[in-house]
Each structure stands twice: as C-alpha cells, then as structure tokens.
Amino acid sequence: MEYLLQNAFLLMEFYEREGIMYVNNGDTDLGNSTYPFTDVLPAPGYKGVPRLCDMFLRTDSQETVSISPAMFDELIFPYYKRLCEKAGLWYYGCCEPVNGFWEKSISKIKNIKKVSISKWCNEEIMGPLLLGSGIVYSRKIDALFFAVYHDLDEAGLEKYIRSTMKHARGCQIEFISREVESVCGNLPKLKTAVDIMRRTAADCLGAGLG
Q1: Exposure string (b/e) for 145-177, b if CB count within 10 Å is 16 or more?
Q2: What is the mean pLDDT of the chain?
Q3: What is the pLDDT of residue 26?
Q4: Which residues contact 10 (CB under 8 A, 6 or more apart)?
Q5: Within a domain: 52
Q6: Residue 42 lies in a domain
Q7: Is 128 within a domain?
C-alpha cells in the first residue's frame, strides 16, 4: 500500500511540477457524473498556475467493499487519508456503500466535500450522518430507470426521489446518474425524468419533507 501511495504521489507531483493541470472548480465532469462547482478553490495563494491544493479530485474504493470496517480502517484508510490531504477538495465513492466505513474512517477526511450515495448505500444511516456537515449527499439514481426498459417508470421514479428527500432531509443534495450506456431508443424519457425529479424535489421541500 505504501508503494502504491508513493507511486500516486509521484504522478500527482509530476502534474503539478509540469504545470499541466487546470483549475477544475466549474463545469468539469469529475468522472463520476458529478461537477465540482465551488468558490472555495483555487486555494489562497493561487497565482495562475494550479497546484494540487487548488484541485477538486475524486477517489473510491469499490475493491474493498467486502472487508470489515475495522480492516478498512487499519489497512486501507490511512493511505487514502494521506492521499486526500494533497488536494483541495475531494469527492468520495462510486457504487460501494459508504455507510459501513463512514464514521470510523471516511468522515475523517477533512477536505471531503461530496460523498456518493449509491443504490447499495443505506440512506437511513447516511442522511443523519451528513446532516449539518456541509458535505454534499450525492445520490446516484438507479440506472435501471434509464438504461434497461424502453418506458420510464414515472411513478417508481417519483417514489424513489421522495424516499431520498425524506432520508436526506436538511442535507445538501444532488441527484446524478451514470452507467447509462443506452436509453433503449427513448431519448425523451431523460427530459421527462428530469422534470419529475425537479417537481418532486420541489414538492418535498415545499412540504417541509426535504
């Protein structure tokens, strides 16, 4: 793990030294269907040449999903923490459920700004944990709504959004989607889905349920 960490450091420092990075605090996909909009970066002292501390980066650990929180905290997290300290802000997670590792490990990343809440994540646990933290509850919508069936399950999607709004009540929430390689020939259903999500979220907020 130390060898892998030092190799990552060498690569990151090469990018910084060669001046081949750009400040990505705007309309830039982080590679996980989320966008790093922030006015916190670049960091103080920025003089036009991006440093690692000016960057919004992301990481995940899907490969360790089957180990215990104690083993993750002992063998994996210390290296992740040191890695994350190099950058300005971080988005953490992909499809792995973070609820088992959050309190003992991941929450200790001081510059984490967003965390992935996938379909395998326990929303009942993560909502209260993120409440008041300033960390974005980045809800990954189940790709089954878009990529498997021709017709959109409108009622199912509305129920899905209402459930998230309930569990993440009071949190900073974003809805994102990935792994949509196909829409089964029905492109308009994406617009319909966005309309449903906006309407449902607004209804929940108006009713004090989000």
Answers
A1: bbeeeeebeeeebbebbbebbebbbebbbbbeb
A2: 92
A3: 87
A4: none
A5: yes
A6: yes
A7: no
- Name the residue among 139, 175, 169, 141 with its Cα closest to residue 157: 141
Q: What is the pLDDT of residues 15-24, one digit of tens each?
A: 999 999 999 9
The total number of structural domains that make up the chain: 1
pLDDT for position 122: 96
Q: Where are the beta strands (DSSP E) in 125-202?
A: 136-140, 173-176
Range of 69's domain? 1-109
What does the alpha-carbon distance between residue 98 and residue 77 come to, in Å, rounded to a whole number?
Answer: 13
pTM of the full structure: 0.91
pLDDT confidence of residue 210: 63
Q: Is the pLDDT of residue 43 over 70?
A: yes
How crowded is residue 26: how many other Cβ atoms within 10 Å of its Cβ?
Answer: 11
> 39-77 burial, b if ≥16 CB within 10 A, otherwise e?
eebbbeeeeeebbbbbbbbbbbbeebbebebeebbeebb
Q: Report if residue 105 sits inside a domain.
A: yes
